[in-house]
Structures are given as structure tokens and as C-alpha cells.
């Protein structure tokens, strides 16, 4: 995946982790204590920030990601925060080949699952996530609210401004995918670079169908990290807590 290899050094600059964790820390803390989660695999860990956060919450957390560059950065971040965490390069379509142990929760957030463009690949990934979960384990997914996005066909999103840089998204809606173009503007030189990656416009109903076909049958749906109800027509996020009946 060339996109993340190219974008890795910009990722932590673009994402405002302080702001994200203001919302996400409470959400995960509530969830993890409610379900007595002791171990977590973040299977699209990116730069490892959630794995560090889980460790700081006293959870045994591991991280994996398809991109070797992201995993390398995750290890650097873990060292920076003095966290001893295990990170592996792994495609989430093959998790059980890399991880032999089972986890109380598997986390796949940051709109990562919709990088898979076919139903076959999505089912393979969901199946593999299920395979590395304990029988009563939780699968925690977060992605963009594609129902809303496709409804609005909104194309331009302001993302972030940093000291000498600005980031914004331009989306191209194609029949079977949405191309996300991240435009990174150097505000001094006025030069810009465009990083491009594809996403599956994965609507809630389809995701639920695929999860059910992989054995998940109990769901909670949220529209944000404050536990507000998911609404197809508004809000940027779809957050799902998925379980298998025991
Ligand atoms: C937008 S980043 C999200 C990272 C992090 N979870 C976060 O919330 O910031 C998406 C991540 O998914 C990873 N990814 C994409 N396809 C994957 C796959 N098939 N298996 C594992 N990771 C994958 C990418 O390498 C990237 O690090």
C-alpha cells in the first residue's frame, strides 16, 4: 500500500491526537471496563497511538498493520512514550497466521476496514478478526458514515492547519469506490502534494450483512465517541461493537 508508505511522516502531524483522545479515551475506558477487557489487538494500528493509550489504561495491547512504515513508526512512538508493546506487520485478512493467541477485543478504527474494496476481502478480514477473538470477545469497528457521505456527495473537507502546512480532502465518487485525495499545501512555498487512496463506500446495512455472514449477531451502533446513536443521515462516524452469541 504505497499511500501509507508515502504518508507515514505526515500522519501524526495531520491527526490531532490530543483532540482525538479527548473523545476516544472516555469511550474506550467505559467500554473496556463494562466488558472487562484485559487484552486487545489493534489490527490496523497505524502509528500505534491507540496501542500506547491502551497500555496506559493497563490493558495488554498489541498492534499490527499492513504497512511496514506505519509499524516502524508505531514502534518509535511506543519507545517515545516508554511503552513496551509488540507490533507486527500483518494484513488483517491473515491475522490468525501471525497471532496464535486470542484477545478479549479486536479494534479496527480510523476508517481502515473500508480500504478493502471487495465483499470477499471484507469477509475474509472479518472472519480473521473473529478467529483471533476469545468466544465472548468484542470486535470494535469505526469507519466513516458512508450512508451520509454517499447521500451528500460532499467533495471538499477542511482537515487541519499546522505551522506551515494545510491539509484538506477532495473526494471523487466513482461507481464502486470513493477516491480520497489528501492535498497537503506548504503555505510558505505554496507548493502542494496530493496523496491518493481508495475506499469502499461501505454502508451500514451491507457491513452488518457481512458481519452476520461471519457469525457476528449482536451489535451496538454509535454515531460518535460520546455514545450518541448512529444516524444514517448525519454525523461523520459509524462505530460498531460486534459480538457473537455464546
Ligand atoms: C487511516 S489509517 C488508521 C490508523 C489508526 N487506526 C488510526 O485510527 O489512526 C488506516 C490504516 O489501515 C492500514 N491498513 C489498510 N489495509 C490494511 C490491511 N489489509 N491489513 C491491515 N492494515 C491495513 C493502513 O496501513 C493504515 O495504517
Task: Give a description of the structure.
It is a single chain. The chain is an alpha/beta fold. The protein folds into two domains: 2-145 and 201-243, Vaccinia Virus protein VP39 (Rossmann fold, 3-Layer(aba) Sandwich); 149-199. The chain has eight helices and eleven strands. The protein has helices spanning 2-14, 17-34, 49-56, 68-80, 95-98, 119-131, 146-152, 204-213, and strands at residues 39-42, 60-65, 86-89, 103-108, 133-144, 156-162, 165-173, 178-186, 192-199, 218-222, 237-243. A seven-stranded mixed sheet has the order 3-2-1-4-5-11-10. A hairpin with a 2-residue loop joins strand 6 (156-162) and strand 7. Helix 1 (2-14) runs parallel beside helix 4. The radius of gyration is 17 Å and the shape is globular. It starts with a helix and ends with a strand. The model has no long low-confidence stretch (mean pLDDT 95). The chain binds S-adenosylmethionine.
SSE blueprint:
Elements: H1 2-14, H2 17-34, E1 39-42, H3 49-56, E2 60-65, H4 68-80, E3 86-89, H5 95-98, E4 103-108, H6 119-131, E5 133-144, H7 146-152, E6 156-162, E7 165-173, E8 178-186, E9 192-199, H8 204-213, E10 218-222, E11 237-243
Parallel strand pairs: 1-2, 1-4, 2-3, 4-5
Antiparallel strand pairs: 5-11, 6-7, 7-8, 8-9, 10-11
Helix pairs in contact: 1-4
The structure holds S-adenosylmethionine.
